[in-house]
Amino acid sequence: MTRVFSGIKPTGPVQLGNLLGALRHWVADQDDADTIFCVVDLHALTVPQDPSELRTRTLELAQLLLAIGIDPERSTLFVQSHVPEHAELSWILECTAAFGELRRMTQFKDKSTDAEFVSAGLFTYPALMAADILLYDTDRVPVGDDQRQHLELARDLAMRFNHRYGNTFVVPEAAIAKVGARVMDLQHPTRKMSKSEDSPQGTILVLDDLATVAKKIRRAVTDTDTDVRFDIVEKPGVSNLLSILSACTGESPEALAGNYARYGDLKTACAEAVVETLRPVQERFAEYNADPAGTAAILARGAARAREIAGPVLSRARTNLGLLETGPT
Ligand code: TYM
């Protein structure tokens, strides 16, 4: 059976781009793959975090994943720091990656430019991400378009390690959807929607009040002429709304464009589709959120199953590398 693995950071409120670019594919993958999903709290540490906020965010992110339809009976859902194999394999892969290839990562360049404090972890982050993936003999990794380069690196590291030390890791494929893989900011449609808090009007949070969601979409920046057409370069604002509507309805953005004569009609349809997508998620989130002990139990079971898979893969890597096995005491 195909093995699917993916992760999400507990660094800020989940936004529509996370849902349309990645999370909805995680839910669909449960029908035909062995699915493993991870709240990657160690990745959040690359920038300083408030401890109690990190704890709350980690638990609530797990609850949100359950609310969107991750089914703990069919998927393994766990928190990265509960499985220490991730940190150990990460070190091994840091020693497999070249300094120069980590320096070329565009996300590192973006996040380190003008930052007051750049942690070493921000630089080595992609090696930890590769460890997450390679620990589970992963075949397919559903992610948004912004993770493409990190996935390429994970593949390169797997191949390099296999070449040096013998066949150890499965080489994973990125699964990046055609529609929704790059949801753009509603106010600045040439930059991607993100969790960071610098564009609250341009970002739809999955847990935003539904009236606010509709308002943000109605106020989205559109383009200067009045044509409803799917053209990302010439009409980024309208095309973003068409992509969002397409991801919510399953119809192609090109076909949808033909249904609307005016921007206002497109915005109304888009707002309705997003509100109806989020409504059941918010209702289920409230139920999970009322039962933190239940969520903790799901995560504990998930971590136990994750360790059953990760342990033997890490042992394989240790043996092939030549690390001395512990003898009997
Ligand atoms: P993160 O937490 O930033 O985002 C989680 C997922 O959401 C996707 N995404 C988007 N998709 C479309 N449009 C957007 N505007 C948008 N914004 C975010 C991301 O591509 C991602 O799929 N490094 C990863 C987390 C990670 C991981 C992994 C992923 C750690 N280890 C192993 C896969 C496998 C990250 O920062 O995602």
Automatic annotation (TrEMBL):
Enzyme class (EC, first level): ligase
Its EC number(s): 6.1.1.2
Cellular compartments annotated: Mitochondrion
GO cellular component, one term: cytosol
GO MF terms, alphabetically ordered: ATP binding; tryptophan-tRNA ligase activity
Catalytic activity entry: tRNA(Trp) + L-tryptophan + ATP = L-tryptophyl-tRNA(Trp) + AMP + diphosphate + H(+)
GO biological process: tryptophanyl-tRNA aminoacylation
CDD domains in the cross-refs: TrpRS_core
SUPFAM superfamilies named among the record's database cross-references: Nucleotidylyl transferase (SSF52374)
Swiss-Prot/TrEMBL keywords: Aminoacyl-tRNA synthetase, ATP-binding, Ligase, Nucleotide-binding, Protein biosynthesis
Xref: InterPro entries: aa-tRNA-synth_Ic, Rossmann-like_a/b/a_fold, Trp-tRNA-ligase, Trp-tRNA-ligase_bac-type, Trp-tRNA_synthetase
A matching Pfam family: tRNA-synt_1b
Keyword Protein biosynthesis annotated: yes
Protein family: Belongs to the class-I aminoacyl-tRNA synthetase family.
HAMAP family in alphabetical order: Trp_tRNA_synth_B
NCBIfam families referenced in this protein's UniProt entry, alphabetically: trpS
Protein name, UniProt field: tryptophan--tRNA ligase
Source organism: freshwater metagenome
